[in-house]
Amino acid sequence: MSGKWGRALGGLLLAVVTALHAAPGTAAAAEETTGAIPSVGTDWGSPGPYEVDVDIEVVHTFYYPRNMGQRGELHPVIIWGNGTGAVPGIYSSLLRHWASQGFIVAAANTPTSNFALSMRAGIDVLEHRNADSASRFHGKVDLDHIASAGHSQGGAAAINAAIDPRVDTAVPIQPGPLADPDLMDEPVFYLAGQNDLTVWPALVKAFHRDSDHVPSVYGEIRGAGHLASIGDGGDFRAPTTAWLRFWLLGDENARGMFFGPGCTYCADGDLFSGWDRNTKAQQIPGTTP
């Protein structure tokens, strides 16, 4: 196992081994006190434990926990790309949801996000503010755990943004065609809509098949059209949240949703009309009994 995703997985495996050898209740007690973003169990679709603030600026809109770092925790980053002609406000409830889960979302304001320039600049801004003692973000940003995500044209941008070595995982939602997965080296969760007539599921599956060099999971949301993810994310909200919590927070509650022989989403025919994991994704261990 090699590359960025291998190192990330190694850290996650170390975390679960440590938890298994800890005294009963030790990990949970630590999580509830200091240094960790609280668990949400497996309730991925409900609001998380944080109240949310929003700053609308010229280049980005930032969604973030109101009381960042209140337990001494650091907050991972999600950079977001909009669909063609859209702005972050179209997806505001979804982006607020992720912020309520403990993430800082840097959403590029551009309606033409395909090349991910503004998305990647969001990381630059947060790096600067994390180092700025006068900023509310000072010392509270987890710059070692960053995801790219987006819808439609922004989904292609999520793939393109993942060429940035600072990005650790990608979540392209119904991604447009102008992207090259061969240039990325992160775990990726591709999402399609069963009834999407703009970005056909076959196009998203092609991206998935072309991502055989990294762990790749393909999920097709049952009954979803192309606009089903706007607003609060609809049925895309819970699985994307679980994926982000696993890869950015090391949330072991989310591992079994995607990985192992008994993965929960693998058998969820009510939510998914299509599901696939490539060879590298199948090699990631599931939840230890």
Report a brief summary of the structure:
Keywords: Signal. The longest helix is centred in the first third of the chain and has 19 residues, at 3-21.
Structure description:
The chain is of the alpha/beta class. The chain has one domain (3-282): 3-Layer(aba) Sandwich (Rossmann fold), CATH 3.40.50.1820. It is 32% helix and 20% strand. The chain has 9 helices and 9 strands. A 9-stranded mixed β-sheet has the order 1-2-4-3-5-6-7-8-9, sandwiched between helices.
- In the CATH hierarchy, the architecture is 3-Layer(aba) Sandwich
Rg is 18 Å
CATH class: Alpha Beta
- State the helix count: 9
Main structural class = alpha/beta
The general outline is globular
Main sheet characteristics: 9 strands, mixed
| Order of helix and strand elements from N to C terminus | HHEEEHEHEHEEHEHHEH
Describe the strand arrangement of the main beta sheet, using strand numbers: 1-2-4-3-5-6-7-8-9
Percentage of helical residues? 25-40%
List the domain count as a whole number: 1
Question: Would you report the number of β strands?
Answer: 9
Instruction: Write down the CATH topology.
Output: Rossmann fold
Strand content: 15-25%
Q: What is the distance, rounded to the nearest whole angstrom, between the alpha carbons of the first and last residues?
A: 24 Å
CATH superfamily: Alpha/Beta hydrolase fold, catalytic domain
Overall pLDDT score: 91
Low-confidence stretches: 10-33
